[in-house]
């Protein structure tokens, strides 16, 4: 089958961010744009001859078109085998699972996660390495370098693959295996959790639950696992059909965007348990009856109860959390006598620690939790983890969380996002903070004394790589913190994220409203960063 070599020239800004390259669909649809990025990725990887690739995405608009192009470019670049999800579907955790299971060289995951989809929405691509995890910065920066000097790409002239047809097809000399996107993942989940116990809990007690797939990729996974395998009543999964525009929604599982689920869980007839996932299935939100579990607490609670789950019954080796994630997990690690790591934002920084077996569980405040079973965060895995714990302990979500706080104290935690801030304003704000850093330590601010103020830099203990400028940290005596950073996943302007945390172990003070408990720190954050003055914003766009 003939292969064409097409002349091209570089596009600016093909720089992968926190989680791959994310741009508006209209940007990706420019002639050669996608091809340039794919070829730059292959060039950065070097020899692709006879290698195996996994390809799949979250089903958003442009997914299948992009996959057909990628398959033809993979064939032209020498790959011998590609595993692709039926109809182009693979959730991010399922892609990680498939890469590991079939020992692929790597995978291309097509997603912009929770960013809105559709013709006017966003698209994204990231490369995951053979361990199933997002490529580390050493690779993403190479991709970027290649993208800045690309002159040609290679593409096969073969016909499109029938992505709906399960089984083997050929594209030139490359074999394409169209696989069921759910089955390998569902098998893996059954090897981790006590399915019979969860099934009994769901089907024979009066426990009730709801899962909101938000018209994104987790629908088929949740229906198979929760309804078909675990016996939850039909209809437990809502918005379960993945749509190319996510039903015009914003599949970001938080109190603002998962409105339908939140309304139900806070109603008088609320079910006992509620959960939602995001566009590509790697995030999760956990709710109880009229109760919200912060992702940071969720990580700590999973860690504290890990031994109740078959896969972790012998204990965990360590915990890693991203820097802005609350320190609740640190207290659990200390009690368990295991290591605890603080990494920059983004799952790519957990891979080395997981590969070296230094940690078993990882988590981020942004509704992401995961473990060594794959190398991505995993929404449904977290849901099953919670269900497994609840089934063993026969407790409600609120009881479990309250008990945890009584034992470990509570890290009150909130994140305030200011979306769509003009980039220059956002950069000026960070610069203004940066300039203050040397003067802050030992200063008394309100009732607190600053113990450190820096721009977080991470030294990876496994490969000695260093990631700098990962966010402004202001830490106070006693552990309270304010953190500022700019998002690396947006496609319009800048998003300022302000993370605020305060520790409380007075048993009488464990059930205060979060925004109230953190009010003075929120005020202080605004004063330090001059948010209102520099951006004109008087309130955040999203509070989680
Ligand atoms: C955000 C989150 C980060 C997460 C990343 C990808 O990044 O803060 O914790 O890893 O999204 O998640 P940023 O740079 O915008 O803060 V996902 O679900 O998009 O793969
Ligand atoms: Co995601």
TrEMBL record:
Belongs to the phosphohexose mutase family. It is an enzyme of class 5 (isomerase). Keywords: Isomerase, Magnesium, Metal-binding, Phosphoprotein. This is phosphoglucomutase (alpha-D-glucose-1,6-bisphosphate-dependent). Residues 14-153, 185-287, 296-406 form the Alpha-D-phosphohexomutase alpha/beta/alpha domain. Its cofactor is Mg(2+). CDD domains: PGM1. Its EC number is 5.4.2.2. The keyword Magnesium applies. SUPFAM superfamilies: Phosphoglucomutase, C-terminal domain, Phosphoglucomutase, first 3 domains. It holds the Pfam family PGM_PMM_II. It catalyses: alpha-D-glucose 1-phosphate = alpha-D-glucose 6-phosphate. It comes from the Bacteria.
């Amino acid at each position: 089958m003939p292969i064409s070599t097409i002349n091209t020239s570089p596009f600016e800004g093909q720089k992968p961010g926190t989680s791959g390259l994310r741009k508006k669909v209209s940007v990706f649809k420019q002639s050669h744009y996608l091809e340039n990025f794919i070829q730059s990725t292959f060039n950065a990887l070097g020899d692709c001859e006879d290698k195996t690739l996994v390809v799949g995405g979250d089903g958003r608009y442009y997914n299948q078109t992009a996959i057909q192009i990628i398959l033809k470019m993979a064939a032209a670049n020498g790959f011998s085998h590609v595993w692709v999800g039926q109809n182009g579907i693979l959730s991010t955790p399922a892609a990680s699972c498939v890469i590991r299971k079939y020992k692929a060289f790597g995978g291309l995951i097509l997603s912009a996660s929770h960013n809105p989809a559709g013709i006017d929405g966003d698209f994204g691509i990231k490369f995951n390495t053979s361990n199933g995890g997002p490529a580390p910065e050493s690779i993403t920066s190479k991709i970027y370098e290649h993208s800045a000097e690309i002159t040609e790409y290679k593409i096969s002239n073969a016909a499109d693959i029938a992505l709906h047809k399960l089984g083997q097809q050929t594209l030139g000399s490359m074999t394409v295996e169209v696989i069921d996107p759910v089955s390998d993942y569902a098998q893996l989940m059954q090897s981790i959790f006590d399915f019979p116990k969860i099934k009994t809990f769901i089907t024979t007690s009066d426990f009730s639950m709801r899962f909101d797939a938000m018209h994104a990729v987790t629908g088929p996974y949740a229906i198979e696992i929760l309804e078909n395998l675990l016996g939850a009543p039909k209809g437990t999964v809502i918005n379960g059909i993945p749509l190319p525009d996510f039903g015009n929604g914003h599949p970001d599982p938080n109190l603002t965007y998962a409105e339908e689920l939140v309304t139900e869980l806070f109603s008088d007839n609320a079910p006992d348990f509620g959960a939602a996932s995001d566009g590509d299935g790697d995030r999760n939100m956990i709710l109880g009856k009229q109760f919200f579990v912060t992702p940071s607490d969720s990580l700590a609670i999973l860690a504290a109860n890990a031994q109740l789950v078959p896969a972790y019954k012998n204990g965990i080796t360590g915990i890693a959390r991203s820097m802005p994630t609350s320190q609740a997990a640190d207290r659990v690690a200390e009690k368990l006598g295991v290591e605890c790591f603080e990494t920059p934002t983004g799952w790519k920084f957990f891979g080395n620690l997981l590969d070296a077996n230094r940690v078993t569980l990882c988590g981020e405040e942004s509704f992401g939790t995961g473990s060594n079973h794959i190398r991505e965060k995993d929404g449904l895995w977290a849901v099953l983890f919670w269900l497994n714990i609840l089934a063993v302990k026969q407790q409600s979500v609120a009881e479990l969380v309250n008990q945890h706080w009584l034992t470990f104290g509570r890290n009150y935690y909130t994140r305030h996002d200011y979306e769509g801030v003009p980039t220059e304003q956002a950069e000026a704000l960070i610069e203004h903070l940066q300039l203050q850093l040397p003067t802050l330590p030992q200063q008394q601010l309100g009732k607190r004394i600053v113990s450190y103020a820096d721009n977080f830099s991470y030294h990876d203990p496994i490969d000695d790589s260093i990631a700098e400028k990962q966010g402004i940290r202001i830490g106070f005596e006693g552990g309270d913190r304010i953190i500022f950073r700019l998002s690396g996943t947006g496609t319009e302007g800048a998003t300022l994220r302000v993370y605020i945390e305060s520790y409380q172990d007075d048993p009488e003070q464990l059930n205060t409203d979060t925004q109230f408990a953190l009010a003075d720190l929120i005020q202080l954050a605004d004063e330090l960063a001059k948010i209102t003055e520099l951006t004109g914003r008087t309130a955040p766009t999203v509070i989680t």
